[in-house]
Specification:
Layout lengths: L2 E7 L9 H10 L2 E10 L2 E8 L1
Length: 51
């Protein structure tokens, strides 16, 4: 099993951005971890989700 880390701009995210990653995960029987980065003046936060 492969681990796949994806870092995505959380402010401009669309579900279709994950389609190629989900395809690769299916082929490799991998697990996807997505980190959504959000940038705002003065601070930044990170959220992580597992599929």
């Amino acid at each position: 099993m492969k681990s796949i880390l994806v870092v995505i701009d959380g402010l401009n995210f669309e579900a279709e951005h994950l389609d190629p990653v989900k395809y690769i995960a299916r082929i490799t029987k991998g697990r996807i971890t997505v980190a959504l980065l959000e940038h705002a003046p003065g601070f930044s936060t990170t959220s992580t989700h597992h599929w």
